[in-house]
């Protein structure tokens, strides 16, 4: 497995793979930051250019996962490393709580320990469910959505692509959160939110319009 990134969230992903005993041929990718001897924790090699990443996919393991938390950047990195022949792969902690019925988790999702996914839930491509986040029954979470620690999404909600749901925020049932929305930490969302919005407060109110995403 190749983890894209070697700092911050990449270390969280590394711990999941350690839990799963999937670190024997693990490497990381970071072409920006300096590391002594290009090694993390005196054990894991850090690749520094796309040519090395392509060679890793061809000769060692074609799986990769994204160890960076920004939803838009995750999408861009997915396209780059897929283009090199990589196969985006989910990392799901054995300490997470995943429902037994009608649960669909998209490729490349990172689900950390303590997170809960109830029955009849769909999670899109490349999503992040951080520690102690909760997605309850009949919810849909779009592609490259980041759900921060302690956030709760209640029944029958739809979270569209490229959203960032802030730590300890709550989205009440039956709501639709549009594309490219940032929900601030601790916010309580009581109504639908349109695309390209920053929302803060209790109850949540739109404080800023965000630039639309153009891929």
UniProtKB/TrEMBL annotation:
Protein origin, superkingdom: Bacteria
Keywords: Acyltransferase, Amino-acid biosynthesis, Diaminopimelate biosynthesis, Lysine biosynthesis, Repeat, Transferase
Domain PglD N-terminal stretches: 2-79
UniProt xrefs under Pfam families: Hexapep (PF00132), PglD_N (PF17836)
Cited PROSITE patterns: HEXAPEP_TRANSFERASES
Keyword Amino-acid biosynthesis found: yes
SUPFAM superfamilies for the chain: Trimeric LpxA-like enzymes
PANTHER family registered for this protein in UniProt: 2,3,4,5-TETRAHYDROPYRIDINE-2,6-DICARBOXYLATE N-ACETYLTRANSFERASE, ACETYLTRANSFERASE
Family from the record: Belongs to the transferase hexapeptide repeat family.
Name of the protein: Acetyltransferase
Organism per entry: Flavobacterium quisquiliarum
């Amino acid at each position: 497995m190749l983890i894209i990134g070697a700092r911050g969230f990449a270390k969280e992903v590394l711990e999941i793979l350690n839990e799963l005993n999937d670190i024997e041929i693990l490497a990381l990718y970071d072409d920006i930051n300096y590391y002594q001897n290009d090694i993390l924790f005196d054990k894991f090699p850090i690749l520094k250019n796309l040519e090395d990443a392509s060679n890793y996919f061809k000769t060692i393991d074609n799986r990769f996962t994204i160890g960076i938390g920004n939803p838009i950047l995750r999408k861009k990195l997915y396209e780059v490393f897929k283009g090199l022949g990589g196969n985006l792969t989910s990392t799901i902690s054995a300490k997470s709580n995943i429902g037994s019925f009608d649960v669909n988790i998209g490729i490349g999702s990172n689900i950390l320990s303590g997170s809960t996914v109830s029955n009849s839930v769909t999670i899109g491509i490349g999503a992040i469910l951080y520690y102690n986040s909760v997605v309850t029954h009949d919810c849909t979470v779009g592609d490259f959505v980041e759900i921060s620690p302690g956030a709760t999404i209640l029944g029958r909600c739809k979270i569209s692509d490229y959203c960032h749901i802030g730590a300890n925020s709550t989205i009440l049932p039956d709501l639709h959160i549009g594309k490219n929305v940032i929900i601030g930490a601790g916010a309580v969302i009581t109504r639908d939110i349109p695309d390209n919005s920053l929302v803060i407060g209790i109850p949540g109110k739109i404080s800023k319009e965000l630039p639309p995403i153009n891929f």
